[in-house]
Design a protein that fits this description.
Arc Repressor Mutant, subunit A; about 290 residues; two-stranded antiparallel sheet; mainly alpha; about 5% strand
């Protein structure tokens, strides 16, 4: 009599029958049906907290998945990612800010031994938890979630931000510089911490200032000078007002001036005085007297 191997996995049932296929039979549904095959090599584990994030854009989710799949040391700067994907530097920069705001990225500026300033990027597959790079993550107790609201007054919706000036030619380089100006405001005053949505709204206004010849440093000073001492409840609205109310005028058009012609010195043939003229002859005094 044969002996059964109790450690062997049971043979899976066929999925091609109407009884076992979720999209066939009496209990068929209209939703997605998964036809999954287990990966053996070249795969990345992604949490549903990222794949089904309720606040991140689809571009930010896809970018986070791509970054988590890369090996250590792979370049993940804006230009490197823009050369890999068709979205462009502006959209990729906005997606990176989303991931940074929600804890999936940590970016710091550091100076190397040679004096060069570089950006260090840390990808976090579970925001709020710490671990060793490329190693196992220690377990941590999940934070308790507040119970769902039942009845009562619904939370008030945040008022829309005031409109900002729009550049005549929204060049990508201007928008990237504008995003850098807005992201650096919190280094001057921590109350000027802006969300990714706020930066996307304000960036065209800053780009308009840059388009009118105002240096980025000057725009930074205008936005941070003379802030009130009390808490800023809506810093993005304050910045939108300043970008609109203090917008400088367009520089006046100045036609190119033709350089004046300087004739060589000539000696008057009558009085022998020096005068400037294109050719030898008599000076103006002798010409009028004659």
């Amino acid at each position: 009599m044969d002996t059964r191997d109790t450690s062997a996995l049971p043979r899976p049932a066929s999925r091609n029958t109407a009884k076992n296929h979720p999209s066939r039979g009496r209990n068929a549904t209209a939703g997605v049906v998964h036809d999954n095959v287990r990966h053996g090599t070249r795969f990345t584990v992604i949490g549903n907290h990222l794949a089904q994030h309720a606040e991140l854009s689809l571009l930010a989710i896809g970018l986070a998945v791509h970054i988590q799949s890369l090996p250590t040391g792979a370049p993940v700067g804006i230009k490197a990612l823009a050369s890999r994907f068709p979205e462009g530097t502006t959209r990729i920069a906005a997606a990176l800010r989303e991931l940074e705001e929600h804890g999936y990225l940590r970016r710091t500026r550091e100076r190397t031994a040679s004096g060069q300033v570089v950006t260090r990027t840390v990808s976090c597959n579970q925001p709020g938890r710490t671990g060793t790079p490329n190693g196992p993550k220690p377990r941590s107790t999940p934070k308790p979630q507040p119970p769902p609201r039942r009845g009562g007054t619904p939370p008030q919706r945040q008022r829309a931000l005031p409109p900002v000036p729009q550049p005549a030619y929204p060049a990508p380089d201007l928008l990237v510089t504008a995003i850098g100006v807005l992201a650096g405001l919190r280094r001057e005053d921590e109350r000027l911490h802006l969300s990714a949505k706020d930066v996307d709204h304000l960036a065209p206004g800053v780009a308009t200032w840059l388009e009118r010849g105002v240096p980025a440093e000057a725009v930074h000073r205008v936005l941070t000078a003379g802030l009130p001492r009390e808490p800023l409840h809506r810093p993005a609205a304050l910045l939108a007002h300043r970008l609109t109310a203090q917008l400088p005028p367009l520089l006046p058009f100045r036609p190119r001036e033709e350089p004046s012609v300087r004739h060589p010195l000539q000696n008057c043939e009558v009085c022998d005085r020096a005068f400037r003229a294109p050719e030898p002859g008599t000076c103006g005094g002798c010409a009028s007297a004659g």
